[in-house]
Prior knowledge:
Elements: E1 2-6, E2 9-11, E3 17-24, E4 32-38, E5 45-51, E6 57-59, E7 67-72, E8 77-82, E9 91-99, E10 102-105, E11 109-113
Amino acid sequence: EHVVESGGGLVQPGGSLRLSCAASGFTFDYYTVGWFRQAPGKEREGVSCIDISNGETYYADSVKGRFTISRDIAKNTVYLQMNTLKPEDTAIYYCFARILRSYTWGPGTQVTVTV
């Protein structure tokens, strides 16, 4: 059982990227799925998550109004649409799937926002 991220890359400030998190070997039913990020020299920061069962979402203050998390239950995939990206959004973004106290983590995908 694992999750894999995709969609990272290099973008200019003000640009957009969409990250995907796909599950393999299990389904996201009853999980909370989301994203943390870690920039060089900084602690890992929770970005956003979604309750697959009811669609309830959470966003860090730093990304509210710019990022949107969504789920496609049929595809067993969660998306993070990132708009109006800023240089401070540069980080490795890690997807996680949590049920009770058990976490499954992806390997991470690099997002770089620079001119």
